[in-house]
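User: I'm preparing a small set of examples for a lab meeting where we compare how different chains pack in three dimensions. I only have the primary sequence for this one, and I'd like the structure in token form so I can line it up with the others. Please keep the answer compact; I'll paste it straight into my notes.
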Amino acid sequence: MRSRWTILAVLFVARAAIAFQFQSVAAVAPQLSQSLGASLADIGVLIGLYFAPGTALALPGGAIGRRYGDKATVLAGLLMMLAGELLMTTSTSWSVQIAGRLTAGIGGVLLNVLMTKMVADWFAGREIATAMAIFINSWPAGIALSLMLLPAIGAVLGLHAVNLAVAGLILIGLGVIALIYRTPDAAVAVEGARGSLTAETICAVIAAGLIWCLYNIGFAMIFSFGPSMLVEQGWSGAAAGSTISIVLWLAALSVPFGGFLADRTRRGEAILVTGCIAFAVLTLLLSRSGMVLAIIVALGILCGLPAGPIMSLPARVLDQKMRPIGMGLFYTVFYAGMLAGPAIGGKLSTSFGSASAALDFGAAALLACPVVLWLFRRIVAGRYRSPGSVRAPT
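Assistant: Understood. Below is the structure token output for the 394-residue chain.
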């Protein structure tokens, strides 16, 4: 009998394939630009297109999963990712590249929504923050693997080999999901049960999605504008980029530690609030202090702590039957905010003449997280005070 940790490992591999595919364009951007005759701005558009379907399809993706089943929908999403990647190998035409990227992105949206729900199905009520934190780490793992392997593959074997390497990892994800993943017994037991999204539940899920969005905006400002801020202070581009990357490597450790700490202490909300405030303060200091390396290390140690507790919030209000649609709503909020956040950061940097303005915007987003968490708690408290409701989970 497969344990929930084995299932988590399977979902980790499949989600790492999404990150691997997403990063594949950026990893070989110079070669791709030369091959397609595209500017770096065009390559940036190609990168961003992967997430473009998210705002429109996250909510329908949850409904599709509810209708046809999680496993079948995830397998369909992986097949779309594979089809999109193979389409990009067939032609250097810009329209074909866009079509392939969008097709792959649709598959990635389905996986992101449903696999998060699948983790919740297996871990709701037990080690949920730890499991979510480990699951979240599949993203930096996939990106790191892409950056390590694909540039070398592209340099030695060419861009077709890069596409085939991406397709190969997607096939591995397909194989492990098809052969190993199974629906938890609890999900089978409620297969015929009816569920509903009340107004309070919808508001709570939107609040949770907004917290996740704001947290990721804060994160995105560090990686998007941190190197530029250091260059403004006289650093070389290479030194600035490698220094900021320390945050990512340390976050790979602090994210699961934050989830583990939340489960062991049962103080996930306190860790969320403390982590976001510390993250915000260090982000503000980064552009105002000469102790850059010390602040970068502290950022990496602390920035990942809130991730697991944040991702465990939807499981507190979504019952088994409504979890697919609920997670679709959660990710709709996330994708919408992540489309707007970096654009706002860039606009502020241009207006104020410094990349530090984007970091300040990121800090403000992080400081908003505890406020939205307070609203989430009020909504949840009201939900469980409603007539006929069950007692709130502890």
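A couple of notes for your slides: Residues 199-232 form the longest helix (34 residues). Residues 4-189 form a domain with the Growth Hormone; Chain: A; fold (CATH 1.20.1250.20).

User: Perfect, thanks.
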